[in-house]
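Database export, one record per block. Field names are fixed; values are copied verbatim from the stored entry.
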Amino acid sequence: MSRLKKTHICAITDSDASESLLPAVHPLAPLSIRLKRFLKKQLLVSEYHPKTLAFFLTSARVLKEKKQQVESGSWIVHPFSVFRLYYEMWMGAVFFVNLIFNPLDAAFGFLLRTNLVVGFILNAFCLFDVFMNFRTGYRLPSNEVEMTQKKIAKHYVFGIYFVCDFLSSLPYHAFAEDRVYSNCFSFLKIVRLVTLLSYMERSFSFFNIRSFYIRLVTLMVLIIHYVACFGFYLPLLMMRLTEGVAKRDKFLIRELGTRKPNITTFTKAYITNCYASTAFLLTIETNFTFSWPFMAYIDVIIFCIFGKILMAVVTVILLDRYRLYKNVETKFYELISQVDAFMEIHNFPFKLQKRVHQYYKYKYRMKYFDESRFDDNIPESLQSEIRSHQLRSLIKNVTIFAAIPPEVLEKVFVHLKKEIYLPQDVIIRADVTGDSMFFIDSGTVAVFSPTGKEVCHLSDGDYFGEIALVFPNRKTSANIIALEICEVYKLDRKSFKKCLESQADLYKRIQLEAQRRLKETHQIHRKQILVTSTHPQVL
């Protein structure tokens, strides 16, 4: 008889080497070797990146991608690596500062006396980013990642970013005598605005922060800032090209009152241009005037057209968000309309209509959702995990449940049924045979003796009726009445016994514990009666 061939080779073990798929390093290896391995590990694809599983869908594909990367021996940075994640967080901050500083320095640098060291540092980071773009893989539409050096370089050089990145990162301050011409390259960094927004989205996603409105505000602020700076810079450039430096200086003196570096003059000029740029983008009338060259007004027309398109896009995005948010609320009012029609046809009294409205408003919190569809669309294993999350805190303080194993508790969770009681609803009546236990998720109930005396209040996290689970044919000793809208979970004796049918010894221990607690309750009750009879209340 031939042996069966083993076809599955498991790649998942407990060693660190199997996790990264890199060869293990000897404990006595030099520090340089260990650092090299550590750096190599950070360049590999990792599920730690928030977008990895969204792109590859399964851990098996991630493992396959990592294996290919290790076997290639390449030092190309994977776009879904840990290194790339933290690098994008850092470069997001650098891009944001660049998008603020570069146009400000280009347009108003002569008024601000900006620190050239800041410009050099920012340019150095951006030049390093150009280098990193040649060493980082990119995503393909076919849900694959290109990690070949030549294809990466070709993709970057012939894309829209390389020329703009390179020209906007050169330190023109060091060799340009007249910065009016060289400053125009600083405005090319605007092409990285989309990159900044994507970096922000990934960074906020890593920290589980919703970033939509933050990114929208950032987009609007940077566009207004760019238009304000470019709107001031363009007339200076046009004047310099057509009429020379002297005419440009006269233009500045006429418009600003001075050409000397002055923070007050800069503040006035910048705020005025921000106001003008906002007016241009919104295409509203303004009394703001500049004696600009004719060609500069073509720029204004472009700003106005771009502003209209931008406002239309932003409006559509916000309306779509609002529609999605209001959709569940609209469905709730549609449901209430149907309920009202039903009650009107059947002549419900006003008091009963009010209680029905109260029930629906509490159940759906003014936002309708189909709970059955939610349960039907997720697997049983996930439903069990959700139930455990919702209900575990409710039964953690129940003494008779303390000895029940976790796997049995999971079965108990399945049989818990949610019920909603309105104010003055009677949950349990005295002297009636009980068969269920109740857990209060939210709300407050009052416990009354059979004679009508209010004994105590129970609220969120409390429970009652536990004796009925293990003692059949025992009558209840109190009335339980809802004081406000209460959401409770109900567990009946039949379901509880079914969960413990294979745990006979455990069920007996629970019965003994319940019997002990019942005796203690009777003793406390007798003492209260004795105290009441000895010290009668004075009315």
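Remark 1: The two ends are 97 Å apart (CA to CA).
Remark 2: Confidence is low (pLDDT under 50) at residues 1-18, 535-539.
End of record.
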